[in-house]
Write a structure and sequence with these properties.
It contains 8 helices and 10 strands. It has helices at about 65-70, 95-105, 120-130, 135-145, 160-175, 190-205, 220, 245-255; strands at about 20-30, 35-45, 50-55, 80-85, 85, 105-110, 180-185, 210-215, 225-230, 235-240. The strands form 2 sheets. It has a 6-stranded mixed sheet, with helices on both faces. A 4-stranded antiparallel sheet has the order 2-1-4-5, covered by helices on one side. Strand 7 (about 180-185), helix 6 (about 190-205) and strand 8 (about 210-215) form a beta-alpha-beta unit.
């Protein structure tokens, strides 16, 4: 049996006035003609503000494409994507870049920290890229939120994998984004460290009100979420609310994962 015992607040109500992220009839096709591959095939889904959503499905189901399109990293072939009240299709590449920098946070499996920068400098990087001068108090506050306020002068090579991912989470939070997108955030971590990182993501939803959308293949990781969106062959094939690891594993088994 798979277990994940968690203290979870109820998911944000489905009748919330504005979705944090909304996809409507989104199609994404890679290539043309005989070599065309349909990555998303008419996907519609809404992410409630202040919720933790996991995206799951077999390999090739479209979950990474879903995340990339939802985050404005890739444009859909057709359909609409909105961040709050902003329709991403109406934005130029420059405006889309600014939106990602100011309103979205990213956490990746490989941490993506700059090795020559300190923890403090890595955390502050999104602010500097946005032309803002980071306040030391802001960086310290976010570092403390992830338990690294005593490691601000360290460089990534002096940290464990779990600590590096905490730096990446702090970097994602420093701009106070509307949504944090996490792509397999525990994929490079051992089980114990991975659970600590998942607990931290759960906390930033419950205590800080952030919205988190996470791609994962791990049923135990998905059990930290309020809701799981299941994908197969580029389509949404089901959802699970207040999921348990066993529920998720059983649903994945039926999808042939």
């Amino acid at each position: 049996m798979l277990h994940a015992t968690l203290h979870r607040r109820p998911a944000a109500p489905s009748n919330a006035p504005t979705a944090a992220v909304m996809l409507r009839d989104v199609r994404k096709v890679h290539g043309r003609g005989d070599s065309a591959v349909v990555a998303l095939d008419g996907v519609s889904a809404g992410i409630a503000p202040g919720s933790f959503t996991a995206l799951m499905g077999p390999s090739g189901s479209g979950k990474s494409t879903f995340l990339n399109v939802a985050a404005g990293l890739d444009r859909p072939t057709s359909g609409t994507v909105a961040l709050g009240d902003t329709d991403l299709a109406g934005l130029s590449e420059r405006r889309l870049t600014i939106l990602r920098r100011e309103r979205i946070g990213f956490v990746f499996q490989s941490f993506n920290l700059l090795p020559t920068l300190t923890v403090a400098q890595n955390i502050a990087l999104p602010l500097r890229l946005d032309g803002r001068r980071p306040r030391g108090s802001t960086v310290r506050e976010v570092a403390a939120r992830v338990g690294l306020d005593r490691r601000l002068r360290h460089r990534p090579s002096q940290l464990s994998g779990g600590q590096q991912q905490r730096v990446a989470i702090a970097r994602a939070l420093v701009t106070r984004p509307e949504v944090v997108f996490a792509d397999e955030p525990t994929g490079a971590l051992d089980t114990h460290t991975g659970r600590e990182v998942l607990g931290l993501l759960r906390e930033v939803v419950d205590h800080d009100g952030h919205t988190v959308v996470m791609v994962t293949h791990d049923p135990v990781a998905a059990a930290y979420a309020d809701r799981v969106i299941m994908l197969a062959d580029g389509r949404v094939v089901g959802t699970l609310d207040a999921p348990t690891a066993d529920d998720v594993a059983e649903r994945l088994a039926h999808l042939g994962a």
